[in-house]
């Protein structure tokens, strides 16, 4: 970002930045990641290539920022926490159903697939993703599970990182690897199975 | 495959086929999937491009066959079933630890990453993968869980597809998305957490 800018210049910068991020998301949806170019994004956003290179070192980092904007847009005034109605099963079903709905949205599909496959091949981008997106989201999920532990709904000795992986991993995988239909019912089954476990338990216990 | 071949021609074909598959795996490890070409594979295998195009329509399908060969090589004489010692927790830990060891092997890393990212962007390859690799493997896993149900170690009403996703999904994800270290201990935690579930249970029950 340029230093010591006037309010007007700052506003113009922000407008250009938003145009670039929007163009990147639109274009990756149209042409796919492999054919996405900085030139193409610059043309679509109505800016020069150098404007883009001043702010982002690569198309991967630009797409990551674009995706981060998409993921947080309009949510600035929402509390950054998972719902807590006191019923961890109902709350997790709501969150996993929302994740399913988001992954099934066409405007998310291409950019998120592009981002996830870049992560697979690019350890630096993976580290950036982990630090800026996965870890903050993971903390929110673990906070909700910690509240459930305090309420006696999740066992004290559960490894919360494994719990998060078991709840959200199957959803992400089924979407990425296309191993089956990604439905709200599937989200419910994952939550029920994760909470109850595979082993039999006495019917009267819950 | 050519029809009505003599035994010698058939042996030569098989030799060429194996050389091509080996070259594809070596090359994708060296240059990555994006820079992998049929020309490059043909040169490395010492065959003509047309020989490759006669057997495979695309580099994706060739790499898939190469990976299938890698995954099943030397296992023809092993029983196509998961271990069953009568202790489902111990058996699943053994299988998940073996999966972790395989994913951490350098010769698997690049070709498997290439295959998995192609699947994300190519629904036809995803369908082929599901039919020829995921579904047969999934049936073996479900067979083991069905045996555990008969032995009273897994609840009757568990959705076995969800159970398989919850056991193997976190391993695949952690490897693909690089969200944390992929260790034997992590494999153990996943099996324990999946079997016991997140909810507390009476200490005397198990």
UniProtKB/TrEMBL annotation, chains A, B:
Note whether Electron transport occurs among the keywords.
no
Q: Which residues bind DNA?
A: 37-56
Where does the HTH tetR-type domain start and stop, copy by copy? 14-74
Q: Which Gene3D superfamilies match?
A: Homeodomain-like, Tetracycline Repressor, domain 2
Q: Name one GO molecular function term.
A: transcription cis-regulatory region binding
Q: From which residue to which does the signal peptide run?
A: none
Question: From what superkingdom does this record's organism come?
Answer: Bacteria
Q: Which UniProt keywords apply?
A: DNA-binding, Transcription, Transcription regulation
Q: What is this protein called?
A: Transcriptional regulator, TetR family
Q: Which organism is it from?
A: Kibdelosporangium aridum
